[in-house]
Amino acid sequence: MTPKGLIIRDALAADLPAVRGLLVETWHATYDGIYGWQRVAEITNAWHSLENLGAQLEREGETFLIALVGEEVIATSSARLERDRAALLTRLYVLPAYQGIGIGRTLLQVTLACFPQAPVARLEVESQNEPAITFYERMGFFLQRQARFDGREDTPNTLMMAKRLFAE
Ligand SMILES: CC(C)(COP(=O)(O)OP(=O)(O)OC[C@H]1O[C@@H](n2cnc3c(N)ncnc32)[C@H](O)[C@@H]1OP(=O)(O)O)[C@@H](O)C(=O)NCCC(=O)NCCS
């Protein structure tokens, strides 16, 4: 059951150290077994630096949300509108201690609701991240095609998934 007092709101600059901490912890828990600790540390230090997260806050048309229980930031998501009006989910992470109790579902719904004009939602998921693939399937996403994470040979394949949001 989703915890009582769950608050979902836009991330603010003051939240970024906590968001970074959440991302580093959840990335290690999720990807160390796939990429190895060292590579995960490299990626998460680069992508989730306070500078990068701060730049994301400034970007027009981008949704960057956090979920809180009390003072604790327990989940974060981000998404943006693509040229074809698709809502692209760029991040969805729930702290390990809070996974499996409905927070991912709630945060995903709130995130997609920020794009009422989008006919479709898309996302990219690591092809070996089976729990996440199962989660997205439960949320109505289907496999669209295979993609590659960032073109690096030492980075495994990702899958593109998509979900129709409303019939045009
Ligand atoms: C994937 C993730 C966002 C899901 O959020 P969550 O809060 O744990 O999931 P919820 O409790 O909202 O679950 C919603 C549904 O998905 C299913 N689900 C969630 N995690 C699952 C898992 N590990 N295995 C199987 N099913 C799962 C639940 O059973 C539930 O289905 P139901 O209620 O229809 O039976 C979260 O577990 C997470 O942050 N994981 C690590 C990071 C990650 O992989 N993020 C995605 C990167 S693309």
From TrEMBL:
Q: Which PROSITE patterns match?
A: GNAT (PS51186)
A single Gene Ontology CC annotation of this entry is: ribosome
Residues in N-acetyltransferase domain copies: 6-166
Gene3D superfamilies, per database record: 3.40.630.30
Q: Does the keyword Acyltransferase apply?
A: yes
Q: Which GO terms describe its molecular function?
A: acyltransferase activity, transferring groups other than amino-acyl groups
UniProt cross-references to Pfam families, sorted A to Z:
Acetyltransf_1
The source's domain of life comes to Bacteria
- Sorted alphabetically, which InterPro entries does this protein's record hold? Acyl_CoA_acyltransferase (IPR016181), Bact_Acetyltransf (IPR050832), GNAT_dom (IPR000182)
Q: Does the keyword Iron-sulfur apply?
A: no
Q: Which keywords accompany this UniProt record?
A: Acyltransferase, Ribonucleoprotein, Ribosomal protein, Transferase
What name goes with this protein? Ribosomal protein S18 acetylase RimI
